[in-house]
Write a structure and sequence with these properties.
Blueprint: E1 2-7, E2 10-15, H1 22-28, E3 47-50, E4 53-56, E5 69-71, H2 84-91, H3 101-114, H4 120-126, H5 138-151
Helix pairs in contact: 2-5, 3-5
Length: 180
Amino acid sequence: MHVDLTINGEEQEYAVSRSESLLDVLRRNGYTGAKRGCDTGTCGMCTVLVDGDPEMSCVTPIGTADGATVETIEGLGSQDDLDPVQAAFVDNSALQCGFCIPGMIMRSKALLDENPDPTEQEVRDALSDNLCRCTGYKKIVEAVLDASDRLDGERAVADGGSPSGESCHCRDADPAGGEK
């Protein structure tokens, strides 16, 4: 069967098997930012935006995505030109191993698109479907709140380091979602 998807603004037609998930098709076609974690929709590492809504692509049957607009971490920014949400994660040292970060960033983007000025509790609630095994979520929540400020234009996007001037100790993590 064939499906039509608009991925990161590019219209594509893919030959797929009915048994495939959206994650299978994305990764097979070079969109490796969405990670395969649990394959049961419980970890959030495969989160992408489907028609603007965060979806766990590992449990999204490819047939239900036919005709959809999909945004992956690769569509947000690049290593040299980070999206404000990505930059806030870097500047707030919200990256450790980096495996969960693409899903966290995509869910954060969806939250901020819907609610540009969330409270800390609203951020925690929005991220509750995304697991991080490295942190206590404090820096991740701070990064989302910082991204909210940046998107409101209250702060300039830093070009490196943390807001306090400390350097980031997470050089192995790639906020643009690529594999290292």
